[in-house]
Design brief:
The protein has 173 residues and is of the alpha+beta class. The chain has four helices and nine strands.
């Protein structure tokens, strides 16, 4: 029963003649006029809240509105806290990369993958390098082999404009 804050009507905002009333402890009190329901709620120092406006007659509940909204906000905050945001980190290599630079980039990519991020490996071709795209494909293949114990290839190397891109996913533990 998740209702947005905009949909809830409380106390005097409820203009219906009759409502189906639920007490604060959850017992059904039946169909009562909204004025009587309002009096009942105010006698208990609680609010009358319309929880099902689409029902015929609408369903209202006697509850502490402030406490209810606080609980809703607390649940939303908890749900956001448990989410894992996956970001994409990029590692750029060239078609004619040296061994030390290559190993350094592999080490960084492994660190990103262990943190749970996706890694986008790209090779940029400049000028005449566009004639030798096979070199870039070899570098990306070698890169995939170097990180295969911590990653799986999500998207194989693909030429897009002047760059070749490959996307790696972290392996599940």
């Amino acid at each position: 029963m998740v209702i947005s804050k905009e949909e809830l009507m409380i106390n005097e905002e409820i203009r219906d003649k009759e409502v189906r009333l639920i007490d604060s402890d959850g017992t059904m009190l039946g169909i009562i006029s909204s004025k009587e329901a309002q009096k009942l709620a105010s006698s208990k120092n609680l609010d009358l809240v319309k929880i099902a406006p689409q029902a015929v007659p609408p369903v209202c509940r006697i509850m502490d509105y402030g406490k209810y909204m606080f609980e809703l906000a607390k649940k939303e905050k908890e749900a956001r806290k448990n989410q894992k945001v996956i970001s994409i980190k990029e590692v750029r290599v060239s078609a004619s990369i040296e061994d030390h630079d290559f190993n350094f980039k592999v080490k960084n990519a492994c660190k990103f993958l262990k943190d749970g991020d996706k890694v986008k490996v790209s090779v940029k071709f400049r000028g005449r390098e566009m004639n030798y795209t096979s070199l870039g494909e070899e570098v990306l293949g070698k890169f995939a082999e170097a990180v295969e114990e911590v990653a799986t290839v999500e998207r194989k190397p693909k030429l897009e404009g002047k760059s070749m891109i490959m996307i790696l996913n972290p392996k599940q533990q």
